[in-house]
Amino acid sequence: MTVEGTSASMPPRGAWTSAPSVDRSSVTTETEGAEGAEGIKLDGISLTYNQRRSPVHALKGIDLDLASDDFVCVLGPSGCGKSSLLNIIAGYLEPTEGSVWIGGTEHIEPNAQVGVVFQHANLFPWLTIAKNIEFGVKMARLPREERKRRVDAYLELVGLSHAGSQLPHQLSGGMKQRAAIARTLATDPSIVLMDEPFSALDALTRESMQLHLRSIWQKTRKCIFFITHDVDEALLLGRRIVIMHPNPGCIVQDFMNPVFVPEGEVSFSDARAGKEFVELRRFLIAQIAVGSESGSEIENVSRSGADKRTALL
Amino acid sequence: MPVGAQRKPRKRKKTRGNAFYLGISAVSVGAVLTLWWIASRNAWVNPLFLPTPADVWYAFADIAKEGYKGSSLPAHIAASLRRIFIALAFIFVTAVPLGIICGRIRWIQAIFDPFVEFYRPLPPLAYYSLLVLWFGIQDTSKIVLLFLSGFAPLFIAAVHSSRRVPVDRFNGAKSLGAKGWRLYVYVIFPSCLPDLLTGLRTTVGITYATLVAAEMIAAVSGVGWMVLDASKYLRSDIIYAAIIIMGVIAILIDTALRLLIKRVSPWVES
Ligand SMILES: Nc1ncnc2c1ncn2[C@@H]1O[C@H](COP(=O)(O)OP(=O)(O)OP(=O)(O)O)[C@@H](O)[C@H]1O
Ligand SMILES: [Mg+2]
């Protein structure tokens, strides 16, 4: 499977069936093709949190190229710096070293070019769903008719046409999160960042949200940078999968998802049952567990986290 | 259920309508009124201190019909409310923007903080004579007094609520393209509004409490002045009537504010 415009390489077939050994130096990060006007480029990002006693090296030397229609799922043990990386891409945090490039210009401050969907829908509680979606379009000073057209289109895209006049607190968690996605997409960002957007939802809602997001991505072909704890979620949604390890946070795997269904109707239950899917999942869980063991201070916490994850599957 | 185990009757939390509690309040008010009536009727207390409810009612009816000292009762009430509302309007348009900006920008807060902190605990009467000296004995000095007494609580509510705007909400708005003053107008101000209205309730309470003091000097109208003037002639019936009028007006204002809060922030659990 080759997808134009991405730099990721696949892991060798069958690699994940053997005991995984992580060799950080072997991670491929050569860049090619993604530097088009639309692409997103992370260039040598490092981040150190300055704490009085001991500085925390949260990220070190992160290079990543994203194509304008990528769907990247980021996996990694807790505390490996996923959220920190997202905050840097969004412009909320300034990296200690390195820079973020979007379409050839450096991205320094948060703006509508980089959309963010939070774990909690984070809608403006005083605005109706329609007004929430209109917010970004209004900030972009688009004419009234265009605003209305977009609001209607995005309400429809996320299946909330009937709920436009409701206030956020009147909606279920899944509906709120869909409204948040619509609000972010309505400003037409170059990339949408999502930090565990479905983790606060119950299992059924989560699955329906995954299908929703999947179909939204198929329709819009937006670049999505999707952080998740859930290996299944990553395998079902991600065209490309990135694995991070902590201490300091870095990318150890970056490959095209071999079980990704590129087009058409997706059946998640079929996908889950596939042999390759099962093996890949096992491989990824092991990879994440290795990462959490390499942490010294957080070792126990994250190992028990990894065990739990394995046990759940 | 294991054999022989007895199911205990489950205690259900009783849910009662508002009417039940309103009923209790009505009964308790009725009881106090009755006690008042009995006590004054039997002259347990000197009628100078405690007129009968009937006396107070007649005093009220008299004021309502004939007015008090040259102005009608509505004119007295209007005079007081006018002072309060002008002061409140000035407080709202100054304390809110200033407080919000101070909450977001540390160095601006550093400019204003010492002054607010210094004058805030001062009893308003302490500087009232100065205000009279500066602004004369007309309404201006009264309004300024009310303004100063009510400014601090709303200012402080604005500072704290603008500082507490959730980081995610603020960041999210930036990522939707909001920046500069638009962040203040479209994100921070509406975020703070529920807190601001709650602060306004406190402010209304304090200005109202200062009202009588404000109408102490060189006033010829106002409900607060009525109380003071009647006390000169030992007309306790009028004092009681005026106090009850003040109390009822205060309850009405507060209720209106509470309804407004509910209306503009239906998502806030009360
Ligand atoms: N504000 C902060 N100050 C100091 N250290 C921080 C701060 N935020 C995060 N860190 C540290 O940086 C590291 C990375 O944190 P981050 O939140 O990015 O991890 P994460 O991968 O998102 O974890 P999780 O999966 O639990 O959300 C952690 O070791 C964390 O303790
Ligand atoms: Mg995180």
Automatic annotation (TrEMBL), chain A:
It comes from the Bacteria. One of its GO terms (molecular function) is ATP hydrolysis activity. Residues 40-271 form the ABC transporter domain. It holds the Pfam family ABC_tran. InterPro entries: AAA+_ATPase, ABC_transporter-like_ATP-bd, ABC_transporter-like_CS, ABC_transporter_ATP-bind, P-loop_NTPase. PANTHER family: ALIPHATIC SULFONATES IMPORT ATP-BINDING PROTEIN SSUB, TAURINE IMPORT ATP-BINDING PROTEIN-RELATED. Keywords: ATP-binding, Nucleotide-binding, Transport. Gene3D superfamilies: P-loop containing nucleotide triphosphate hydrolases. Residues 1-35 are annotated as: Disordered. This is ABC transporter ATP-binding protein. It comes from Paenibacillus radicis (ex Gao et al. 2016). The keyword Chloroplast does not apply. Residues 18-27 have a biased composition (Polar residues). The keyword Nucleus does not apply. SUPFAM superfamilies: P-loop containing nucleoside triphosphate hydrolases.
UniProtKB/TrEMBL annotation, chain B:
Residues 77-261 form the ABC transmembrane type-1 domain. SUPFAM superfamilies: MetI-like. CDD domains: TM_PBP2. Pfam families: BPD_transp_1. One of its GO terms (biological process) is cellular response to sulfur starvation. The chain crosses the membrane at residues 20-39, 84-106, 118-137, 143-162, 206-228, 240-261. Gene3D superfamilies: MetI-like. Belongs to the binding-protein-dependent transport system permease family. It comes from Paenibacillus radicis (ex Gao et al. 2016). It is found in: Cell membrane. Keywords: Cell membrane, Membrane, Transmembrane, Transmembrane helix, Transport. One of its GO terms (cellular component) is plasma membrane. It is a multi-pass membrane protein. InterPro entries: MetI-like (IPR000515), MetI-like_sf (IPR035906). This is Taurine ABC transporter permease.
